[in-house]
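Quick illustration, no need to memorize.
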Amino acid sequence: MPQKNSDSAPKKSKVLDLLDTTKKPSRRERQRKEVEVEIAPPLPSKLEKAKSEALDLFSEEKKPKVRKTAAAPKHILGSISKSVTKEDPAMVKTPAPAAKAETPPPAPELTPEAAVEDEAPADPKLIVIKPPILVPELAARLGLKQFNIMADLIKIGVFPAPNQPIDPDVAAKICELHGFTFEREKRDKDKGIHKVQEVIAEPEVPVAEPEELLKDRPPIVTIMGHVDHGKTSILDYFRKSKVVAGEAGGITQHIGAYQVIHGEQEITFLDTPGHAIFSDMRARGADITDIVVIVVAANDGIMPQTLEAIKHAKKAKKTTIIAINKCDLPSANVDRVKSQLAEHGLQTTDFGGDTEFAEVSALNGQGMTDLLELIALQAEVLELKANPKTTARAAVIEARVVPGRGTTATVIVESGTLKVGMPFICGPYAGKVRSLINDRGVAVKSAHPGMPVEVIGFEELPNVGDHLTQMKTEREAKTLSAERQESQRLVRLKPQHRNRMEDLYSMVRDGGGKAQLKLILKCDVQGSVEAIKKAVLAIQSEKVESSFITAAAGPITESDVAYAASTDAIIMGFNVKVEAKAVKSAKAAGAQIKLYSIVYELIDQVREAMLGLLEPLNRETVIGHAEVRQVFKLTRGRVAGSFVTDGRIHRKGHARVLRGGIPVFDGRMSTLRRFKDEVEEVRTNFECGIRLGEFNEYQEGDIIECYKLEKVPQTL
C-alpha cells in the first residue's frame, strides 16, 4: 500500500505542474516551509526535465495565464493540514495574497491584444472611447462637468439630449477645445479586448510612374453623332457583325464597347446613342476616350446631336476626327458638311484647318480603311501608355442584370491588369471578379489596359461612371463598402422637410398642389435608367409632376407589381421582360404594365399620361344679353320681363344678373318663356320672361348675361 502512494505522487505532481505557469511556490508549499514539516523527498531529475519541457510548450502556444494551486499527495496533505491548524489557524482560513512583489521568472511573450489590455496609454492627452459616445462618459474622461460639455456642444451647433450618443467627429472637436486628442475604438470579438479601429482607404491613383514600367495600350475611340447617321453601321463594318439589325428602331440606346484589330494595332471602340435623352452617356463616353470620331451624314449635314457631340469633344479636350458617312448617296453634299463644320470651329485639313476627316460609306466600305489609318496615326501621335503591373483600375460604362449571370458591368481597364479572383471596390459596393468576358463573348482570365470586358462578381448593381479599383483583400473591400453604404444611409436618414401649417394653407389656397404621376421604371441597363429618368423629370409643369417609386435595371418582378398596387403607380419597362409570377400578380391586383423598345415612344407616353391627370378647364363663352324691362310678381316668386339686346338667351345655359356692371347672382336658368309658351331660346330683339333659380331680387335695368361652359383640355 505505501508503495502505491509513492508511485502515484509523481504522476499527480506532473499533471499539476503542467498547469502551473507561474513557476512560483504554491501557498501550501510556503505553509509547509513555515511550519517546518517534513515533506516528500525531492522529485527525480527526470520529472524536472519533463516539467520544463511542458512549460516551454505551453509558452509557445501563448495561452492566457491560469493560476492554479497545486495540491500535494494525499498522505502529505493530511499532515500539513493538521500541523497548520495547530500552529496558526488563521493561515488556513485566510488565503495568502498573490506574490506580486516577488521577482517572477521570465514569462511567455504576450499577444498583441494582451499588450493593448495591459499597457496604459502612453499619451495622457489621448482620449480613446468606443462608440456610442455619451456626454457623461466624455465629461468623465476629460475631467469636466456634464454642463461644460453641453455648453461646448451648443457653441458648435449640436443640441443632443444628455443620454443621446454624439458623433465621433463632434467628440473629436470637443476634445480639441480642451487640448486632448480623440481616437475611436472598436471592440474586438475575442474576449472584449479593445483596439484602435483600422482605417481602410481606396488605393490612390499614382501621379507619375516610372517610364520603364509603362507599356503601349490600345487607344479608346468614341463614335458620336446624330441619331441614324450611321455610327453603329461603321462599327459593324469593322467588326463584320450585324448589330443594327438587332436594335429596336435601328438606333443604339446604350453604350457598347468593342475591340478591333487593325494590322498589329488594337483599337477599342465605344458606340454611344444619338438620341437626345442620352446626352449624359455621350458626355461619359467623351470623358473616358482618347479619340472622338464624329459621324456626320453627307445628306443631312450637321444636326442637333452633332452639335452636342462637338461640344462634348471640345469640353473633354480630345482629338477629333470627322467621318462623313453616306457619301455614296446621290443627295450627298460633302462640301456643305465641311462648311457647316467650319462654322462651328472644326476646320478640315483641305480647308486649311487641323481637323482630320474621312469620306466613308458604311454600306459599301468606301473610305473605311482610310478612317482606321487616321485613328492608328493619331494613336501613335498621342503615345498612349499605361502600367499593367500597378493597381488595377477600370471605368464602368454600363451595368445590367443578366439572367443566369446576375449583376454584370461593362468596364474598360484604365491601368493595371484585371484578373479573375481579384477583390475590388466600385463606388459603395464591393465584389470579387468571378468571370471576365470579352466583347466577342469569350471568357478570359485577365484584361490589360484599354481592353473592354464584362465583369461578373458585383454584390449590387454599380452606378454607371463609377471606377472599379483593386483592393488587397476581400475583407478590406467589404469593410470599405460597409463604411460607404453607412455614410449613404446616414445621408438618407437626415431630417426631411416637414409640412408646416403655412405650407398646407398655401396648397389649399392654390388648389391643392400638383397632381402626381407615379412611375416604376425597369430597364435592361443602368445607363438607360439614368437617361430615361432624367428625361422624364425634365418634363416641367406647374400643374402636374412625375415621380419614381423605383428605377432600376432588371426584369419586372412580383415585388414591382406589389409596389405598383400599393402606391397606385404605373410600371414602365424598357427592353425588359416580365416574369411569369409578375404577370399573374398584375392581373390580380389590376396593376398596369407598359413595355417599350424605343425610348422616344416611352417619353411621349409619359407626357400624355401627365396630361391625362389634369382636369379639363371650364371655358366661359358669352352668348347673349337681355335687359330687365319689368318685374312680374307671381304666386311663387318673381319673373323678369326682359328684352334680348344681343345674341341669344338659351334655356339650358348659365346666366348671371349684372347690376351696375356688378354680378349679384350667378346660376342656372330655370324658366324661359315667350308669352305663355316654354321655349329653348330667344333671339335678339325679342321679349321673354326669365326666371333664374330661387333669385327674386330683380330690378328694372338689370342685365341678364347668358353664357355657356365648355371643357377645354389643359396643357403642361
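The radius of gyration is 44 Å.
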